[in-house]
Design brief:
The chain is mainly beta. It contains two helices and 19 strands. The longest helix is centred in the N-terminal third of the chain and has 15 residues.
């Protein structure tokens, strides 16, 4: 009787404390994930778990898509021969065989053409630029040969040569300047506060040294690369006049209409 009573008590204790396993443990581990409606599962995230059931996930607003204009400035006919610059007046520059950069044609493409939007921009698309753009005097030449920047930006002019140069700006709307820059002197920094048509910057001490500068009141401009390639990006949808200006071959224009996104092709062709 005592043995029966003890067995009955043990059975009652086992039932009250959680029952008996439905299946024997084979020595491995068994993971289970309890899920209820609106609760996170084992693969969910903390954000999902805390969000109310049925609520849509909040998304960051996406920047509006913009269009791009891409093309090549071509040169037709026989390209003019590039002459070697006569640097004999400066012993440290003489004999380097530097070629004139006025007209550069590679594989039928024309370099150093300024491509920009000249008409069609809204007032809200015009803006002031920030920071500096660099113009270097190196090997008794200006690098780059054509420099485009946005009004509000500054030109920072460096003398990397071992001789004195004289930087003479022929700007029209921005204050012109004529300033000597000895070897090792600090950069000359000049702010371009207003848009300005293409103007030359020269060295009065070395007559072959010249480059071209142009200042825009917006950011939609570029300069064609060594093979004439160019791209204008981040364009708002609209109808525009696109200008392609070369320092000696003149200016061409084209009318284009761009949509909200995508890449549109536009080519120009110059000849001597």
């Amino acid at each position: 009787m005592k043995r029966f009573t003890l067995g009955l008590c043990a059975l009652l204790v086992t039932i009250c404390c959680g029952g008996v396993d439905a299946a024997p443990n084979d020595g491995g581990t068994t993971e289970t994930t309890a899920t209820t409606e609106g609760a996170a599962t084992a693969t969910g995230t903390a954000t999902e778990a805390s969000a109310p059931a049925g609520a849509a996930a909040k998304k960051e607003p996406m920047a509006p898509a913009r269009a791009s204009l891409k093309g090549v400035v071509k040169f037709t006919g026989e390209a003019p021969e590039r002459k070697v610059l006569d640097m004999s007046a400066e012993a440290s520059c003489h004999g380097k065989g530097v070629l004139d950069e006025t007209v550069i044609v590679n594989d039928g493409g024309l370099a150093n053409v300024v491509v920009s939007i000249s008409k069609g921009l809204a007032k809200s698309d015009k803006s002031k630029g920030k920071g500096k753009v660099t113009l270097r005097q190196e090997g008794c030449t200006y690098i780059p040969h054509v420099l485009a920047l946005q009004e509000g930006q500054s030109i920072e002019i460096h003398n990397d040569d071992g001789v004195v140069h004289n930087v003479h700006s022929y700007s029209k709307r921005n204050p012109s300047f004529n300033q000597a820059q000895p070897a090792g002197a600090p950069p000359i920094v000049k702010e371009m506060g207003r848009k300005d048509k293409m103007f030359p910057v020269k060295c009065d001490m070395h007559a072959w040294m010249t480059c071209q500068v142009v200042v825009f009141d917006h950011k939609f401009f570029t300069v064609s690369d060594a093979k004439g390639g160019f791209e204008l990006g981040d364009l708002p949808a609209g109808k525009y006049t696109i200008s392609a200006q070369h320092e000696s071959l003149g200016t061409q224009t084209a009318e284009v209409t761009v949509g909200d996104s995508g890449v549109q092709e536009l080519n120009f062709t110059f000849k001597k």
